[in-house]
Amino acid sequence: MSSTTSKVLTLIISAFTIVQITLASDPDILTDFIAPNGSQVDASFFTFTGFRVLPPNTQPSTFKAWKASRTEFPALDGQSVSYAALEFPSGSINPPHTHPRSAELLFLAKGSLQVGFVDTTNKLFTQTLQPGDMFVFPKGLVHFQHNSDTQKPALAFSAFGSANAGTVSIPNTLFNTTIDDNVLALAFKTNISTIQALKKGFAS
Ligand SMILES: *[C@@H]1O[C@H](CO)[C@@H](O)[C@H](O)[C@H]1NC(C)=O
Ligand SMILES: *[C@@H]1O[C@H](CO)[C@@H](O)[C@H](O)[C@H]1NC(C)=O
Ligand SMILES: *[C@@H]1O[C@H](CO)[C@@H](O)[C@H](O)[C@H]1NC(C)=O
């Protein structure tokens, strides 16, 4: 390959990399921040106190996610970041789900946690985390978390590269919508009564 060709190739590859990076985040904004209605704001606008309720103050009986995204914390609008606090009573799970708009960087603060994701070749990557460990779930891939400890709760914090990462819960998406039973029976290679039994678990 001539050196000119290789330089052109390098340029094309780096241009694609830059485009990828640009597309991998929320749209950029043309102001420092987005104040509601363009109004005057003070430091309290940039402060989120919603996690003050966390342990030892809370003891949920099932898995609980506390979100600090654009909805709960409007100052995040346009900043491409958000957080969630995840509480896992012993034995609880955060069922398989995806975040369409961001990777997730999970930090385990307390307890132990089994985590995992499946890539687009259907390969499972799983790990048991100790306090202080971090695990990254790549953007858009199906992942889960499970506190298999029979005694101790676990507490984790997740950072996202989007102010509104979004969550698609796999069980909820499949069995708590009105997708035709026959479509699901065919998809899962089972019969309609099995699908109806699964759907029953979600009926409120
Ligand atoms: C923004 O405007 C709406 C409608 O005028 C008003 O109800 C709301 O309180 C305003 N929000 C802030 C933060 O000023
Ligand atoms: C549906 O499938 C389940 C599990 O294979 C089986 O136990 C059940 O008898 C089937 N029901 C019908 C109506 O075919
Ligand atoms: C099922 O969907 C409804 C409506 O979106 C929701 O309120 C409910 O929490 C869901 N049930 C479960 C078990 O997730």
TrEMBL record:
Q: Where does oxalate bind?
A: 94, 99, 104
Signal sequence: where?
1-24
Under the heading Pfam families, the entry gives:
Cupin_1
Keyword ATP-binding assigned to the entry: answer is no
Q: Where in the cell is it found?
A: Secreted, Extracellular space, Apoplast
Where does the record place the Cupin type-1 domain? 49-196
Alphabetically sorted, this entry's keywords are: Apoplast, Glycoprotein, Manganese, Metal-binding, Secreted, Signal
* Sequence positions that bind Mn(2+): 97, 99, 104, 143
Q: Recorded GO terms, molecular function? A: manganese ion binding
Where does the source fall among the domains of life?
A: Eukaryota
Q: Name one GO cellular component term.
A: apoplast
Of which family is this protein a member?
Belongs to the germin family.
Query: What does the annotation say about its assembly with partners?
Result: Oligomer (believed to be a pentamer but probably hexamer).
Protein purpose: May play a role in plant defense. Probably has no oxalate oxidase activity even if the active site is conserved.
Q: What is this protein called?
A: Germin-like protein
**Native organism:** Trifolium subterraneum (Subterranean clover)
